[in-house]
C-alpha cells in the first residue's frame, strides 16, 4: 500500500539502472538525509554530537570500508583498526608538516597512505583465502600498532606516542582541536561520509562491483570469464583501506581530538567487523544500521533501567553491553547472516505487496 | 566429408563452416604420475559444433580445461587463429574470445540473473573506476549500452521473467540457461560447453539443444561441447572427437564415429 511499486514503469535502461528505481526508496532516503542534515543538528546537544552522532558516522564509514573488502570482494580482514590508525597518523603528519594544508584535503589524502599500506598487506590474498587471509591481516594489525608505538617520528616525538589534534581553522572557522564547535565538526564528517558513501554505492552497483562480487562468489569461474583476480583483489584492498583510512582520520581529527596508538588495537577491529556483520555483509546501508545499533546499545542499556526505576551499577552496564553484543552476533550469524540490511529487505518485500498476500 | 578436408563448405542445413580456428597439437597433460591426456591432436573449425565424448574419466573435462586455459598442457601446444598460443592466464584467454560454461554450475550466487549475465560483458567494458564511482559520462553510457546486448541474450534464451531474481533461487535447468547466457553475453569466438545437459529432463534437454543450434546458426559461434547423451551429441554436432583413457580413439562425423570399432569397444566393452 505505502510501498506499492505498481505503475512505476521504466522506459530506458538508464532509468532502470538508476539508483532508486522504486520511488518510495528515494523518499525514504530523503527523510533520512533530512534528519541527518537538518533535524539532528538543530535538536542535538553537544554531548549527543560527541558521543552519538559523530561516532555513528565514523564507525559507519569504517564498516563501509571493511564491507567493500569483506562483504563485496569476499576477502576477510581483521586489520581494520590498524588501517584506520595509518589514516589518522598520516593525517597528523600531513597537518604538522604542512600547517597551511586544508584539513579536508589532508583527511582525504591520508586515505591514500592507508590505501598503499592496505595493498601491501593485501598481496598475500592472491595465495591464501578465508581464515588464513584473516590471520595475515591480523599480522598487519599487530605490526602497525607496534609501529605506531615505537616509531616516535609518527607522533612528533610525543613520549606516550599519542597524537593530539591542534586547533585547525578552515575559512576562519575552527574545525578541529579543543576549540572547535561540535556542530561544525558534525557537518564536516557528514559531508565526507555522504560523499564517500555515494561513490561507494556507485562502485558497487557498476562493473567494478560485479567484478568484486564475482571474485567473492566463485573465484575460479570469475577468472575463466576474464576477471584478473590479482587486480580485482588489490583494488578491493585499495578502495577498502582508503575508506577505512579516511574514517580513522575523521574519527581522530574531528571527533576524538586525540588518540593513543593502542586505540587502534584489535578490539576496535572487532567492533567494526561486528558492525559490518550485524549490519549486513555486502550491503552499504547495513553499515549505518549496524553502527547505530552498536553505538546506541550501551546508551540504551545505561538509561533504560533508570527510566523504569531499576538501580544498576556502571560495571554491570558494561558487562550487559558486552553480553548483548555477543548474543546479537550469534543471533545474526545463525538466523540472518546477511544482517539488518536483509531484514529490512524482507520487510520491504512484504510491504510492497501488503495488504495482499501475493 | 572427411576430417582432413579443410576447404570451407556448407552443411546440409545451410551453415557456413570455415577454416580451422583452433588446433590442439599433440597435447599431453600430466598430474604428477597420472597422465590425463596423452598426445591428442584435433582441430575446431570456424562455425562448427564440435563434440568431445568418451566414457567417464576419459579426460574430456581436462581437455576443455586446457582449451580454456585453466590447465597448461605438459607437452604440445594450442594453436588459436593460426598462431601458437603463448602461456597465458585464464582471464587473458577469456579476453581473446573463449567463453565457457561449467559442468557443476558456477554462477555467482549472490547476484541477480541480470548481474550474472552482465559479468559476461566485462571483457568489453572499459570505463575507469573514477568514472564508475561518479556514475557519470562514460560509465553510465557503457552500462546502458551493454545492458542492451545483455537484454538481447535474455530475449534469445527466453529468461525475461527471471531477470531480477537472485540466481540462488532458480531451479537447476534455469541456472544452466543463465550460465549459457553469461557465456553468450561475452560474444565469444569459441563457446565451450561442459555437459550442458547433465541432469536435465527431456524437455529441458530439448530446449537446450534448440538454444545451442540457434546460437550456432544465428551468431555463427563456434561451439565445442562435452556431453554424455549420445542422442544429443549425434544430432547436434558436425564432428565428434572420442576419447578414452586420455587417448583419442576416434574423430569424424557422427556417422563415422558411430561405426568406428574402437569407439564401440570403448563404450560397450570388449568380449574376452
Automatic annotation (TrEMBL), chain A:
Membrane-spanning segments: 20-40, 52-69, 101-123, 130-148, 186-204, 234-254, 274-304, 316-335
Molecular function GO labels: branched-chain amino acid transmembrane transporter activity
Listed Pfam families: BPD_transp_2
Any one annotated GO CC term: plasma membrane
Broad class of the protein's primary localization: membrane
Keyword Membrane attributed: yes
InterPro entries, per the entry: ABC_transp_permease, LivM-like
Key words, A-Z: Cell membrane, Membrane, Transmembrane, Transmembrane helix
Protein location: Cell membrane
Membrane-protein topology: Multi-pass membrane protein
Domain of life: Bacteria
Protein's UniProt name: Branched-chain amino acid ABC transporter permease
Originating organism: Halocynthiibacter styelae
TrEMBL record, chain B:
Coiled coil segments of this chain: none
Keywords carried by this UniProt record: ATP-binding, Nucleotide-binding, Transport
GO molecular function terms attached to this record: ATP binding; ATP hydrolysis activity
InterPro entries hit by this protein: AAA+_ATPase (IPR003593), ABC_AA/LPS_Transport (IPR051120), ABC_transporter-like_ATP-bd (IPR003439), BCA_ABC_TP_C (IPR032823), P-loop_NTPase (IPR027417)
GO annotation, cellular component aspect: plasma membrane
Annotated ranges, domain ABC transporter: 22-270
Name used for this protein in its record: ABC transporter ATP-binding protein
The species this protein was found in: Halocynthiibacter styelae
Amino acid at each position: 500500500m505505502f510501498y506499492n511499486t505498481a505503475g512505476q514503469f521504466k522506459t530506458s535502461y538508464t532509468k532502470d539502472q538508476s539508483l532508486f528505481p522504486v520511488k518510495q526508496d528515494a523518499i525514504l532516503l530523503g527523510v533520512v538525509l533530512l534528519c541527518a542534515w537538518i533535524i539532528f543538528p538543530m535538536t542535538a546537544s553537544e554531548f549527543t554530537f560527541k558521543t552519538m552522532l559523530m561516532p555513528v558516522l565514523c564507525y559507519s564509514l569504517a564498516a563501509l570500508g571493511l564491507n567493500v573488502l569483506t562483504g563485496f570482494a569476499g576477502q576477510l580482514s581483521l586489520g581494520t583498526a590498524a588501517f584506520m590508525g595509518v589514516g589518522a597518523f598520516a593525517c597528523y603528519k600531513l597537518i604538522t608538516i604542512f600547517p597551511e594544508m586544508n584539513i579536508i584535503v589532508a583527511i582525504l589524502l591520508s586515505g591514500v597512505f592507508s590505501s598503499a599500506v592496505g595493498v601491501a598487506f593485501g598481496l598475500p590474498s592472491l595465495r591464501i583465502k578465508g581464515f588464513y587471509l584473516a590471520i595475515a591481516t591480523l599480522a598487519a594489525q599487530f605490526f602497525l600498532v607496534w609501529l605506531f608505538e615505537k616509531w616516535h617520528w609518527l607522533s612528533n616525538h610525543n613520549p606516550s606516542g599519542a597524537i593530539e589534534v591542534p586547533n585547525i581553522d578552515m575559512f576562519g572557522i575552527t574545525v578541529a582541536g579543543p576549540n572547535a564547535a561540535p556542530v561544525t565538526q558534525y557537518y564536516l564528517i557528514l559531508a565526507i561520509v555522504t560523499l564517500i558513501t555515494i561513490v561507494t554505492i556507485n562502485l558497487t552497483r557498476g562493473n567494478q562491483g560485479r567484478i568484486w562480487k564475482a571474485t567473492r562468489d566463485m573465484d575460479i569461474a570469475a577468472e575463466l570469464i576474464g576477471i584478473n583476480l590479482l587486480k580485482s583483489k588489490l583494488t578491493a584492498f585499495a578502495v577498502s583501506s582508503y575508506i577505512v583510512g579516511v574514517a580513522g582520520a575523521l574519527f581522530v581529527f574531528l571527533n576524538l581530538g586525540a588518540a593513543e596508538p593502542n586505540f587502534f588495537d584489535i578490539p576496535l577491529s572487532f567492533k567494526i567487523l561486528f558492525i559490518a556483520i550485524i549490519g549486513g555483509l555486502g550491503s552499504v546501508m547495513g553499515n549505518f544500521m549496524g553502527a547505530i545499533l552498536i553505538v546506541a546499545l550501551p546508551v540504551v542499556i545505561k538509561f533504560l533501567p533508570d527510566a523504569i526505576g531499576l538501580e544498576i551499577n556502571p560495571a554491570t552496564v558494561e558487562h550487559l553491553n558486552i553480553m548483548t553484543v555477543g548474543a546479537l552476533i550469534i543471533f545474526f550469524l545463525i538466523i540472518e547472516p546477511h544482517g539488518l540490511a536483509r531484514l529490512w529487505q524482507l520487510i520491504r518485500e512484504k510491504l510492497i505487496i501488503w495488504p495482499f498476500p501475493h | 566429408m572427411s576430417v582432413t578436408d579443410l576447404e570451407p563448405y556448407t552443411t546440409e542445413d545451410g551453415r557456413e563452416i570455415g577454416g580451422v580456428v583452433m588446433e590442439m597439437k599433440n597435447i599431453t597433460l600430466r598430474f604428477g604420475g597420472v597422465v590425463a591426456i596423452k598426445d591428442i591432436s584435433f582441430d575446431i573449425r570456424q562455425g562448427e559444433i564440435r563434440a568431445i565424448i568418451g566414457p567417464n574419466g576419459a579426460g574430456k573435462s581436462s581437455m576443455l580445461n586446457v582449451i580454456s586455459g585453466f590447465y597448461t598442457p605438459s607437452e604440445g601446444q594450442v594453436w588459436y587463429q593460426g598462431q601458437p598460443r603463448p602461456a597465458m592466464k585464464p582471464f587473458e584467454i577469456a579476453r581473446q574470445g573463449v567463453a565457457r560454461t561449467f559442468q557443476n554450475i558456477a554462477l555467482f550466487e549472490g547476484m541477480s540473473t541480470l548481474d550474472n549475465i552482465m559479468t559476461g560483458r566485462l571483457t568489453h567494458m572499459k570505463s575507469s573506476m573514477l568514472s564508475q564511482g561518479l556514475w557519470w559520462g562514460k560509465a553510465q553510457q557503457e552500462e546502458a549500452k551493454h545492458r542492451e546486448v545483455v537484454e538481447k541474450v535474455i530475449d534469445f534464451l527466453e529468461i525475461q521473467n527471471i531477470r531480477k531474481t537472485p540466481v540462488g533461487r532458480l531451479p537447476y535447468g534455469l541456472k544452466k540457461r543463465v550460465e549459457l547466457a553469461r557465456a553468450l553475453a561475452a560474444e565469444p569466438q569459441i563457446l565451450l560447453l561442459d555437459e550442458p545437459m547433465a541432469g536435465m529432463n527431456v524437455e529441458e534437454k530439448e530446449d537446450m539443444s534448440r538454444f545451442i543450434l540457434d546460437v550456432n546458426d544465428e551468431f555463427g559461434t563456434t561451439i565445442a561441447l562435452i556431453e554424455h547423451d549420445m542422442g544429443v551429441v549425434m544430432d547436434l554436432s558436425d564432428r565428434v572427437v572420442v576419447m578414452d583413457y586420455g587417448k583419442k580413439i576416434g574423430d569424424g562425423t557422427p556417422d563415422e564415429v558411430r561405426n568406428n570399432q574402437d569407439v564401440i569397444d570403448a563404450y560397450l566393452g570388449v568380449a574376452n
